[in-house]
């Protein structure tokens, strides 16, 4: 069964502490924290102080996705704030390998993310320094976008590249019960979902639907 990492981007920002606690009680495995800087992507969200405050409200794994330019200078901020996983973008780094090692050096799991236009082959050399690979199935920057089905081939290719390495394969963008099944069949083991989790007040049912809809044999 896949893990579900609800994206806080779709939560009620005026009630974040309660939202996080409700997600934990509803069976969320991780909490996905989209950090956007208005430069690498055309949107702004939240920073390390918000994450540090939320850390006191939850025992969930904090899955922090840095959609920022020059993430190297910010990595220590988010490590200190309580992130468990810190994912950087391949396209945002001058030296992705060094950034991944920086994250691990701070005692955190290191993730590498690629945009839809970036081939899977670009990150083969980074897999030994990564604990997670994140495939974007929408163009990063905004929630609620439609799933790009042409990324399924990339997910499957990465599953093959990862092989027996102890690396999570995460997918983010347009995830709902139908696309969740496609991603699981392609080899994903972590799904990031915003709208699909927060679409009704029954977060537990929404999370369960992502894990079990069209369950694989």
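Sequence proposed for the structure above (217 residues):
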């Amino acid at each position: 069964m896949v893990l579900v990492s609800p994206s806080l981007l779709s939560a009620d920002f005026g009630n974040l502490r309660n939202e996080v606690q409700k997600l934990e009680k509803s069976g969320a495995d991780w909490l996905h924290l989209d950090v956007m800087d208005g430069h690498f992507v055309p949107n702004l969200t939240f920073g390390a102080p918000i994450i540090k405050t939320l850390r006191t409200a939850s025992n969930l794994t904090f899955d922090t996705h840095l959609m920022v330019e020059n993430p190297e200078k910010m990595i220590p901020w988010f490590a200190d704030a309580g992130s468990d996983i810190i994912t950087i973008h391949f396209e945002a780094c001058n030296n992705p390998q060094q950034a991944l090692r920086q994250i691990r050096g701070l005692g955190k799991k290191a993730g590498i993310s690629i945009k839809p236009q970036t081939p899977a082959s670009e990150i083969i050399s980074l897999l030994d320094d990564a604990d997670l690979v994140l495939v974007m199935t929408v163009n990063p920057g905004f929630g609620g976008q439609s799933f790009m089905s042409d990324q399924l081939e990339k997910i499957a290719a990465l599953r093959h590249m990862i092989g027996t390495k102890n690396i999570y394969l995460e997918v983010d963008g347009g995830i709902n019960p139908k696309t969740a099944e496609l991603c699981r069949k392609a080899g994903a083991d972590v799904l990031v979902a915003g709208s699909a989790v927060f679409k009704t007040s029954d977060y537990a049912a929404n999370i369960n639907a992502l894990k079990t809809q069209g369950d694989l044999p």
